[in-house]
Amino acid sequence: MKINVGIDLGTTYSAVATFSKELGRVKVLKNSLNSDCTPSVVCIQNGKVLIGDEAKDEQKCGNVNTAAFYKSMMGDPGWSAYIDGEEYSAEKLSGLFLRELIRDVARTNNVEIDGAVITVPAYFNDKQREATIRAGKQAGLKVLKIINEPTSAIIAYGLTGGKDKNVMVYDLGGGTFDVTVAHVSGTRIDVLATNGNHQLGGKDWDEALIEDIKDRFYYDFSISIDDHEEDLKELQVKCEEAKKRLSSAPSTVISIQCEGMLGKYTVTREEFADKTSNLLNETISLINSCFEEISEAKNRSFGWSDIDEVVLVGGSTRMPQVKDMIVREYGKQPITKDINVDTIVATGAAMQAELCVSSTITLTVASAPSQQGGGTATANRATPMTLTIHNSDIQDITAHSLGMLALANDNKTYINSIIIKKNSRVNETFSREYTFAGEKLQVYVLQGESRDPYETDIIGAYSITGMPKDNKGKIKVNFLYNSNGVVEVNACLENGQVLSAVKENSNETMSEIIARLERERREAEELARRNSRIEIMLIIDTSGSMSGRMGQAQRSATEFLSGLDFSRTYVSVISFANTSSVVSGWSNNKNDINSGIRAIGSWSADGGGTSATPIETHYRKFSSECNHRIMVILTDGYWNNQSSEEHSASKAKRDGITIHAIGIGEADEAFLDRISSGKGKKVDLSQLTEAFKEVAASIATETSGNTIK
Ligand SMILES: Nc1ncnc2c1ncn2[C@@H]1O[C@H](COP(=O)(O)OP(=O)(O)OP(=O)(O)O)[C@@H](O)[C@H]1O
Ligand SMILES: [Mg+2]
After folding, report:
1. Could you tell me the CATH superfamily of domain 533-703?
2. Sheet holding 457-465, edge to edge
3. Which of 379, 442, 585, 708 could hold 366 in an S-S bridge, CB 3.0 to 4.6 Å?
4. Whose Cα sits closest to atom 21 in ligand 1?
5. Ligand 1 centroid vs 318 CA: distance in angstroms?
6. Where are the domains of the chain?
C-alpha cells in the first residue's frame, strides 16, 4: 500500500507517522525495533550504512565512523564529517539517514512510502530548508512540503474546534530551540510570532555535563579525554544518558575510563540545573522577544497573560527545570495531557501530508470542542466528533526578515534593506521597483534582521535579464517566502511582461561581494565621466588665402561655440598654414576659447602657404578620458600634403575621431569629402555660419542619448 507520511527529522531522534482516513487519526509508524523514534545517528563502514540504534551503539563503543547532530549543520558549505574515508555534508548524511529510515519503517509496517512532509525548526533559514528538501529527494522521497516543527505540533495538538485561544509551543529538542505563538480559532491556525536558536538544544545540556566530567577527570588523573576520540564519543553517550536519568532521579553517577584510569562522578539534579541555567535563560529571552514582536504588531502589550495554553514539545522538555521555569514565568502549568513530546511533531506533519494530497482532512477527535486541551490525534477518549480541516486553515509565518543588499543614502555604505519583515505571512508577495536601463540587474538577497549586511545570510544573487534595450520603464522585482519557507524571486516589467530571474550560485563572501560592487561602481562612474566628456578641436586655416575671410570665420566660429554644452564640452583651437600651432588648449571656459578664436582673427592670415599637416600633428592630442573626439576643420584652399593628410584622417577616424571639414573659397571639395567622417561641406562665405550650425547639430546628435554604454 502506497502512503504519504510526515517525518520529524530531528537532531537526535526522528519519527515517522501517517494519517489513516479510516480511523480519522494519525498512526505513528514504528521502526524494526518496535520503537516510535529512531536515533538520527549514521554509521558508515566499508560503504555500508547503519542508522538508528545500531548506529548509536557503534557511537557508544567509540566508533569514529559515526555522525550525529549533523542537522544543525544543514546548508553549511563549510561543514563536513570525514567518515569511512569520505567527506559527508550534513545534507548527504540526512539523505542517507532518511533513505534508511524510510526503508526500515516501510518494511516494518508493510507499506510503500511515496510522499513526505518533512519538518524543520521554524528558525531554519533558507539554505537549511533547501538542504532539507534536497536530502528528502536524495532519499527517494517525493517532498510534499517542508513544515515548521512548532506549527506541526499545533496542528496535532491545538485543533480541537473549540474556542479561540493563543497557544505557545515551547520546543526544546536535541539541537534546536523554537518558541512559537499562534492564535487558534476553530480549525484555523494563525502563527503570530516565532523565535529560536538552531544551535541550542539538549546537546548543550549534554555538553555542560561532558565539560564537567572532563574537568573532574583531568583534575584526578591529569589526562585530557579530548585527546582520545573513542573515549570522548563514549563519554558523550554516557552524559546524555545521565542527563535523562536526572530527569527522574535526584542524582546519578557517570563513570568513564581513559588510559586505563577509571573515574566515577556523582552529579545531582540541582548542580546540573545550576550549571545549565544560562541555557534556560536564553530560551526565556527568546520568548520575551516573541512577546515584544507581537506587541509591536498588535500595537498593544502582549505577554504571558495573553497565553491560554503552553505546550511543551521535544525530548528536552522532560527536564524538570524546564517545566519549573514555565510555571515560574507563566504562573500556570503547561499542558501535558495527551501529548507525546516525541511524536507530536511527526503527527502534525502526517496530517499536513494528507492535507497536501487531499486539501481537506476529517479528524475524529476525542474531546468535545468546549473542552480545554486534549490531543486530537493521539488520544481517543470521550465522545468522538469529526473536525474538517482545510489546507488554507493553516497560516504560517517566516522567522527571518528578507532583504537586499543596497547602497545607503550616503552613497558609500552597503546595507541590508529589508523587504519582508520577520513574522510576515508566507506566500505573500512583496515588491520593489527599480529604474534600470542596463542589460542585467543583479539583486543580492539577504536573510536576517540586522541592517549590517555582514550580519546576514546571503541567500543568493539573482540576475534579472530580458529587459528591452535601453529600458525606460520600471522593473518590478517580487520577493516571496513560499509555503516551504523558501525564498522565491521573480521579476516583471510595468506592463506585466515576465523577465528572467535566475539565482546564481556563488561562494562569494559578503566582503568579496561588497569589494566587487565597489569596484564596479567606481568603474561605471569613471566610464560615465569619460563617456560624457566631449572634445572638439577647432582647426582653422590661417594661410594667405584666408585674408579677407578671417572676420567671417571668427564670427561663424563664435556662433558655433554659443550652441555647445560647456558642462561637458572642451574645445581646443588650432591654427595652420605652413605650420600648425595650438592657439588655445583644452578648455570648457567659453571666454578662453573665444579669445583663442579672436586671436586667430586678429592674425588675419599669415600670408604663407599650406604645408602644415594639422590632422597628423594633432589627432593624437585628444585626452584619453574622453569618448567623443571631434575635429572641425575650416579651410579655403588646397593643402600641400593632401594625400598624406587623407591617410592621417583615415587613421584618426579608425581611432574613433569624427572629422567635420568645412570648405570655403577654393577648397578642394573631393579632399573635404575624403577627410570627413560623413561628407565635407563646401559653402559660400555667406553660408559659413549655417554650415557651422549644421556641424553643431550633428555633434549634438552624436553625443546625446545614452552616454553610458
Ligand atoms: N528524559 C529526558 N530528560 C532529559 N532530556 C531528554 C529526555 N529524553 C530525551 N531527552 C533529550 O531530548 C533530546 C531529543 O529530543 P527530541 O527527540 O525532541 O529532539 P530532536 O527532534 O531530535 O531534535 P530537534 O527538534 O532539536 O531537531 C535529546 O537531547 C535527548 O537527550
Ligand atoms: Mg524535534
Report:
1. von Willebrand factor, type A domain (3.40.50.410)
2. 414-420, 402-407, 441-447, 457-465, 498-504, 487-493, 474-481, 429-435
3. 379
4. 10
5. 8
6. 2-200+279-395, 402-528, 533-703
